[in-house]
Amino acid sequence: MRTPSIRGLFLLTAAACLLLQGRAQAEFPGTDDKWLHIKSANFELYSRNREADSRELLHNLELLRASFLETYKLAERRRLEVTVYFFKSEKDFRYYVSEAYGSKHAFVGFYQAGVDRAVIYLFPGEDASITRQLIFHEYIHHLLRVAEQNPPPWLNEGMAELFSTVAVTSSKLEFGQPSRGRLWQLNFEDLMPVEKLFAVEQTSPIFQQGDHTGLFYAESWALLHYLYFGDSKIPAERKIAFLSLVLANRFANADEMRHAFQATFGVDYAEMQRRLEKYLTSGKYFSVKKPLPNIPAAASYALRAVAQSEIRLRLAELALRVNRMPLAKLVLLTDAQQNPSDTRSLEVLGADALRDDDQLVAGERWAKAIEAGTLNPAIYRELGLMEGRALFSRFDPYYRVPQETAERLRRYLIKAIEYNPEQTDAYEMLAWVEAFAGEPVIKNVALIQKRYPDLTRKQRTALALAFVRVRFNQSAEALEMLAALETMDPDPWETYGIEATRAFIEKRPIKRENLRPANTTEAGRVRLGPPKISQPPQDGNR
Questions:
Q1: What is d(CA 404, CA 411) in angstroms, rounded to the nearest whole number?
Q2: Per the domain annotation, does 110 fall within a domain?
Q3: Which residues of the chain fall below pLDDT 50?
Q4: Can you give the CATH number for the domain in which 351 is found?
Q5: Which of 122, 242, 281, 329 can bridge 109 by disulfide, Cβ–Cβ 3.0-4.6 Å?
């Protein structure tokens, strides 16, 4: 057999690429040259529909975002870029639906979050209001995650349902329009006790079983609707204050929440149950209108035509994110090799590798994206966190981060902070880098300490900052910080770090009796997990 020449290999590769391009266009329905790209402040939209409808969809999402964040005084601490796909053909849209839903689903839109980006994809459907309600619901969950909020399920789902029916007019936003499907269900099923509703967790059977989930969503919505719109005798500031405490998980246990509820509303759970049932049978559901948030007009969004080659890549990206299609991955790998300055394929492929827990490949691809100048803040943050977790999975006071590694992590984390200065994760990891670097950088320590009061989680950062004091021979201050940390309900990993730091200062062995119980290996040795830095958001399709 003859060995192909270099020129022959080149021709074979070129032919394969042309074949792949033609096949990809056939394999990714919707690929043509009639798509539009519209960019607003917080979304990019690929649309196959009319420009006016596309701008309206994007503007409605911007209005929802601004209104929600303003209502609860929240900020996007852990920003995740959002791409919206607005299909014209239902047939094309259905091709990209997750295989987990089978062929009998009737959903008209989906949301999915990855570590690098979130996507929303939808088509108009027969009833635009139902499509909007579905997408609004999922986007509220997105906003809660990126705001570093972790509310209990009843508040999480209730808020998503409440904001899902926001109606946009030319000059107002109307809040409180009832969900017809939820009302129908509530009129035919008995409500669960309020205390039981509050006790539901993500792992609770009632939340997992399909026959109860609908009631849970409906009653969560109904309770919030009643609190916001149904009882004018309760001052608005008291309602918001209580819900803000729940949103921030400020109650240590169920008893503490029960007492706060009764003190806030002047009634116990049983009386609130009675009032809620009466409200639902009254048939009168109030709403309020508020001025539109002050955001740029829809007409100001940047518009451009999309080349067929570009939408092919974006649809391949969607196919890889949703169903991990091998052909889609091949298309993106080819693009990453042929167009190394286009960072998008590298970002997506890195996220895909991480789904296989292949951190080496994910890191390589994201590092290349950074070298090529990516503007995606999640890439800097996630790469810095991923490398940092590997270094600090165990608390070892004698460990020092190699200088080259420390400098690289600093670059990633400081860039992530520049993009997203209100986040918690990058400050926390930067604190660990400075605690264990060969030479801590005072400027970075000062930056962390300045932001420390506003972090949504403080324990791990406090522990790292205490060890920074040890590095600067300020043992007395370090011990004071450790004592304060012990009042912050440290977990077993943090408790170990506190004891290990004290032992390091006092030049003594670690005393196991000072540790909280933790998971053990077969040999009975304490197994310590990685630092509690927030994991990437989970997929949230609806």
A1: 11
A2: no
A3: 1-22, 24-25, 211-212, 518-542
A4: 1.25.40
A5: 122
